[in-house]
Amino acid sequence: SRERSSAWMDAIGDEGGEADAKAYLAFLDSRAEVDTARKAGVLGFQYGSPYAFHTAFAVPERIGAVAVIHPIRIATARENSPHLSVARSKAAYYVALAGPDDEREPADKDDLRQAFAQAGLTGTVEVLPGGNGFAVSDTASYGAASAEAAWAQAIRLFREHLR
Question: Does the structure show a pLDDT above 90 at 73?
Fold first, then answer.
């Protein structure tokens, strides 16, 4: 499934993800119940994490906060790694890394923190002890304490930055 998911992500591409984000937000903003005077937020899980970042790049005036939980492909060695473009956004960020992901790629958290600092953006990056999928209650790797910590931080980020 990892190969299939990666192939789908590559087929969409960065530009496709940003075009989709603009269309989704335009639809939401057309709804009467949406207060377009307030900022919008984006939540990304695992494979959705790069798209959460790209949504903030696509509509920087609308997106006030981005939270990603056990993300993949947001801090890579590729020249189009999302962390290299955070200056295109105006959002505040929260990144909850899974412990095993940090063990495998220990520099990611520092690369993300540096990118947020260089862009002058609020960015919190933390490593939680749970494994991949720790915040999804119907997975074998669900970790209640890590999930609660990640959700609490994401909600706090949204409350502070979606005004």
Answer: no
In this prediction, residue 142 carries a pLDDT of 92
- In the prediction, which pLDDT does 154 show? 98
When pLDDT is averaged across residues 72-80 and rounded to a whole number, the result is: 88
Mean pLDDT confidence for 26-30: 97
Query: d(Cα 97, Cα 153) in Å, to the nearest integer?
Result: 13
CA nearest neighbour of 127 among 154, 108, 111, 141: 108
Report the C-alpha gap between 125 and 144 in whole angstroms. Answer: 19
User: Beta strands 63-69 and 92-98: pairing type?
Assistant: parallel
DSSP character string of the chain: -HHHHHHHHHHHHHHHHHHHHHHHHHHHHTSTT--TTS-EEEEEEGGGHHHHHHHHHHSTTTEEEEEEES--SSS-SSTT-GGGGGGG---EEEEEEEHHHHHHSTTHHHHHHHHHHHHT--EEEEEESS-TTTT-TTSTT--HHHHHHHHHHHHHHHHHH--
Q: How are strands ordered across the β-sheet holding 40-45?
A: 40-45, 63-69, 92-98, 123-128
Q: Put residue 73 in one of left, alpha, beta given phi > 0 → left and psi -120 to 50 → alpha.
A: left
For residue 6 the two structure tokens come to 């990666």
